[in-house]
Hints:
Blueprint: H1 15-24, E1 29-33, H2 37-48, H3 53-65, E2 86-93, E3 98-106, H4 111-121, E4 126-128, H5 129-138, H6 149-158, E5 193-198, E6 204-210, E7 231-234, E8 238-244, H7 246-250, H8 254-263, H9 268-282, E9 299-305, E10 310-316, E11 320-324, E12 329-333, E13 335-338
Parallel strand pairs: 3-4, 10-13
Antiparallel strand pairs: 1-5, 1-11, 2-3, 2-6, 5-6, 7-8, 8-9, 9-10, 11-12
Helix pairs in contact: 2-3, 3-4, 8-9
Amino acid sequence: xxxxxxxxxxxxxxxxxxxxxxxxxxxxxxxxxxxxxxxxxxxxxxxxxxxxxxxxxxxxxxxxxxxxxxxxxxxxxxxxxxxxxxxxxxxxxxxxxxxxxxxxxxxxxxxxxxxxxxxxxxxxxxxxxxxxxxxxxxxxxxxxxxxxxxxxxxxxxxxxxxxxxxxxxxxxxxxxxxxxxxxxxxxxxxxxxxxxxxxxxxxxxxxxxxxxxxxxxxxxxxxxxxxxxxxxxxxxxxxxxxxxxxxxxxxxxxxxxxxxxxxxxxxxxxxxxxxxxxxxxxxxxxxxxxxxxxxxxxxxxxxxxxxxxxxxxxxxxxxxxxxxxxxxxxxxxxxxxxxxxxx
Length: 343
């Protein structure tokens, strides 16, 4: 086993085998981003105990929100440019097509749970900023400082040292790939956590939660809390989510498109790759392209069909995802559009 809990050992399985495994699977299933092995296990256990699917999804992602070693989610997440951790989250439930979300939420570890309360106990779908915090506190959530010593050290390196007189020359807000090497040499090995889950009857639930782009402009909201961008599902069709460069998922409605592609008959992996092709085609700003006019960032899409088939696709090679097929959790290689050069 890997010594890094955020990098569990990948199952010894070739990419084509992993794609076939997902295409042929039927029945209950949970799928998550690469930092979600324990999350899919926890969600599957909760589903097996009869918990509502949306509760099971939230219970799963809370593992990452509680983990200070995961610098992209909840407690221990990397802060914004002012050194404050701001979290975004969204939940969806196919039983009611309900949506609940929070954006730029400060001081609350379990943004996913707040999003669930928004869905279940408010007439709204999305609350942000101070209003989201007031709502959370009114419903019993405890405000706390989410900035750990490790995250504070990384923030200080990014802004140029303890005096804070200059920002790092390596500031890359524009590209901000949460799966790559972070600013000032700080390695962020995982991104936003997404989890989708289905049961025997084809009902679905999903949750995406994140502390967002490292060192972002205060108030920046990415794709994660936005229905159709970082998360989307429809009863009887499927569920999808996204990690990576949020702006590119947001301005292409990537998760919505994945579900539409599954509805049109594509299997989950092909649906993800089809959407990634469209994202690549629509990426035109020179600052976002490499020297071969390919996107210079990553997006990873996760897809779960209502019958239990699953799949994952990334813009670039080398990414992984987690799945629980009802019997065990596995870490599998993601399909990809472009092959990353070795070294």
